[in-house]
Amino acid sequence: MPGSSTARALAAASLAVLLGLVAGCGSGGGGGDAEASGARTITTDRGPLEVPSAPQRVVNLNGGLASYLYALDVPPVATDTRVLGVTNFDGGFPPAWADRAREAGTEQLPAGDSLSIEAVAAAQPDLIIGGGQGITAVQAMQAYDQLAAIAPTVLVPRTLTGWQDQLDAVADAVNKADAVPALLDQYQAKLDEVKGQVTPPAGETVYIGSFASEKLYLIPSTAALPALGQDLGVTPSDVVAKVPDARLASTGDSMEVSPELLSEVANAPNAIVVDSGGRSLEELKQDPNFAQLPAFRSGNVWELPATSYRPDFDGVLSTLDEFGQIFPRQGG
Q1: Residue 81 counted as domain residue
Q2: Residue 169 placed within a domain
Q3: Could you tell me if 136 and 232 lie in one domain?
Q4: pLDDT value, residue 330
Q5: Residue 246 has what pLDDT?
Q6: Angle at 246 between CA 225 and CA 282, to 5 degrees
Q7: Are residues 206 and 164 in the same domain?
Q8: Adjacent-strand bridge partners of 40
Q9: Are 25 and 164 found together in one domain?
Q10: How far apart are CA 208 and CA 293, in angstroms?
């Protein structure tokens, strides 16, 4: 339609103007700030990359990475807000860091099936951070060249599923590695506190991912949540070892299993269901595929919220509290 062609032409012209403005900032605006504070070269999956030594206008493309920026005291000027099972296309900051986002004046990036390059450019970033897991990571990868034309762009590898590794990657990008030890100390103190308040269940625990899908998913023992539980003494079941030719998701933190194999693989005496936008524990109890499992038959099954599945720094602290509530200390 002629109207559509005209609209596309105007959108392209608008983007060109925005990119032109940002390029201008590179020599006198945001870029000038970077030059004034110096630049440094970091190593990324795409090779060496020069980034500001003290970035002032960070745009974050993955809601799952925002918590690290606030914890490192580098609040983004604009951020994606989507966190699996917590927020989606409706917008709104996730509760864990909503107050800090509002206090910092962080703007929300539009959430959609594709990344808004125009919105990123309009924020006039001197550094862009993306990657990690989820659809937003895919969007950033697909738009990398466009993003890199706006500002230095760091994509956290999707293979980094542990929160400590993600924290290190983000801290390296914003030159805040010296702030990491204090955050790790904060985690260790919380871990020690909760350890003294729990009695882990006897035997292994299988982790079940409940997503907005009809398929059945288990969470490998090497993923972030089971690893966190293991820090508390909750022994994860190695579900991958029980499946011949197991095929994990590209992020490595979920594994699809057929209904026929579920009873053979998820046969641990305990189970934890992570509701990430799928069916609740009570709903799964009505499903014959799950009702037959040993943990469900014995009642040794518990539920954790979506924030525990791929926990960021805030999520890992709150998940420790969740473990404390479902496994309270028994006896003396």
Answers
A1: yes
A2: yes
A3: no
A4: 87
A5: 79
A6: 50
A7: no
A8: 51
A9: yes
A10: 12
Per-residue H/E/C for the chain: CHHHHHHHHHHHHHHHHHHHHHHHHHHHCHHHHHHHHCEEEEEECCEEEEEECCCCCEEECCHHHHHHHHHCCCCCCEECCCECCCECCCCCCCCCCHHHHHHHCCEECCCCCCCCHHHHHHCCCCEEEEECCCHHHHHHHHCHHHHHCCCCEEEECCCCCCHHHHHHHHHHHCCCHHHHHHHHHHHHHHHHHHHCCECCCCCCEEEEEEECCCCEEEECCCCHHHHHHHHCCCCECCCHHHCCCCCECCCCCCEEECHHHHHHHCCCCEEEEEEEECCCHHHHHCCHHHHCCHHHHHCCEEEECHHHCCCCHHHHHHHHHHHHHHCECCCC
The verdict on 170 and 206 lying in the same domain is no
The total domain count for the chain is 2
The list of the chain residues with pLDDT below 70 reads 1-37, 87-91, 332
33 and 175 in a single domain? The answer is yes
pLDDT digits over 273-324, tens only? 999 889 999 999 999 999 999 999 999 999 999 999 999 999 999 999 999 9
- CATH number, domain containing residue 208: 3.40.50.1980
109 in Cβ contact with 126 (< 8 Å): no
118 contacts 16 by C-beta, under 8 angstroms: no
* Structural domain includes residue 11: no
The sign of the dihedral angle between the CA atoms of 286, 289, 290, 291 is positive
What pLDDT sits at residue 37? 53
Between the alpha carbon of residue 126 and those of residues 67, 143, 294, the distances in Å are 19, 17, 53
pLDDT digits (tens, 9 = 90+) for 248-284: 887 788 999 999 999 999 999 999 999 988 999 999 9
Task: Give the pLDDT confidence score for residue 11 in this predicted structure.
Answer: 39
- Provide the residue range defining the domain that includes 150: 21-179
